[in-house]
Write the structure tokens for this entry.
Amino acid sequence: QIFDFRDIDLPDGETLIEVLALLGSVDIIVPDGLAVRMEVVPVAGDATIGRGVETREREGRPVLVIAGSAILGSVTVKAR
């Protein structure tokens, strides 16, 4: 699955998405400057934030919170 957040205006504060990567992958594409917090638990899987993805949260700015599990799968966040 691919989720593309580049053309979505998120409100200030936290926006939570829950993911389950079960024997597969979930790729999340975010715009430059959007802060991301990864709360995915990998179980024989992988959860990674790619180079260039903002992880520093700032007061009054949008934060994409990614929560869930990666069971024999992967969750990857990329900036473009």
